[in-house]
């Protein structure tokens, strides 16, 4: 195993010719794909990895300068693909990883047959003629809550993000992976994500994109999926599911897995 693979806990499963890369969002790790993976391994080769900063990675490897922007994460994705000698993949990115995959595809479009984005957003702050869902005051309160009592914040944020009560398995699972992050790293990553604005990059994304969104999502309003559809540089398609929450692949797998499988297998241009 190479250095990059080891640092990101890379796992390669299945034996198909087509390669699927599954990339998780903030506060989770590759375990968030546990409901999807069994449906893929018979037909595809599946690459799982952990973003640097996830609780499953070595916090000593987290370089605050490198990960002060999405580009650091995008370089990680490209390094993983290079180390595994991947020539083409279907990249499935949840939340921030949908944007990370898009940025990676700008520099190496040849490596990405298509992007499947779940609950992705190019900007979380409201702006003139743009509704991202948050005002700056909301974000300031969020960051202060993380800073002052991380464990308490995790307990409160998890059910809001997942869209379920504290007793649900999905909320407990997200609470666990969220709490596994080192608090200072979690704060840094949250600030980078929620203060981000990559709208100007969208026109440079030329690979086909499948945009999948919950009808009700605390972090990403439904209108954002349509915004992505309009602004991406290549062909794109949107599907809004009848699910609630920011982690539908964890909280509503019965609804989400068939949708994901259809988009993974379906080509927009076909």
UniProtKB/TrEMBL annotation:
Domain named AB hydrolase-1: residues: 19-252
Keywords: Hydrolase
Pfam families noted in UniProt: Abhydrolase_1 (PF00561)
Hydrolase in keyword set: yes
The UniProt record lists the keyword RNA-binding: no
Gene3D superfamilies: alpha/beta hydrolase
GO molecular function: hydrolase activity
Family statement drawn from the similarity comment of this UniProt entry: Belongs to the AB hydrolase superfamily.
The protein's name: AB hydrolase-1 domain-containing protein
Source lineage: Eukaryota, Viridiplantae, Streptophyta, Embryophyta, Tracheophyta
């Amino acid at each position: 195993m190479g250095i990059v693979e080891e640092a990101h806990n890379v796992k390669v499963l299945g034996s198909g010719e087509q390669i699927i890369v599954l990339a998780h969002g903030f506060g989770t790790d590759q375990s968030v794909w546990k409901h999807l993976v069994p449906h893929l391994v018979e037909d595809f080769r599946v690459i799982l990895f952990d973003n640097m900063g996830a609780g499953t990675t070595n916090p000593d490897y987290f370089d605050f300068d490198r990960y002060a922007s999405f580009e650091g994460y995008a370089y990680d994705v490209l390094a993983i693909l290079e180390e595994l000698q991947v020539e083409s993949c279907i990249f499935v990115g949840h939340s921030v990883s949908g944007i990370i995959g898009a940025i990676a595809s700008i520099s190496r479009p040849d490596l990405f047959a298509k992007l499947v984005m779940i609950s992705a957003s190019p900007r979380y702050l409201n702006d003139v003629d743009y509704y991202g869902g948050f005002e700056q005051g909301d974000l300031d309160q969020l960051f202060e809550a993380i800073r002052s009592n991380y464990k308490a914040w995790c307990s409160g944020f998890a059910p809001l993000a997942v869209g379920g009560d504290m007793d649900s398995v999905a909320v407990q699972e997200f609470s666990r992976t969220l709490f596994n992050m080192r608090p200072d790293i979690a704060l840094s990553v949250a600030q980078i994500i929620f203060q981000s604005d990559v709208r100007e990059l969208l026109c440079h994304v030329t690979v086909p994109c499948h945009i999948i969104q919950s009808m009700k999502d605390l972090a990403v309003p439904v209108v954002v999926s349509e915004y992505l559809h309009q602004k991406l540089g290549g062909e794109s398609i949107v599907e809004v599911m009848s699910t609630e929450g920011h982690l539908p692949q964890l909280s509503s797998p019965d609804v989400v897995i068939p949708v994901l499988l259809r988009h993974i297998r379906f080509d927009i241009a076909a």
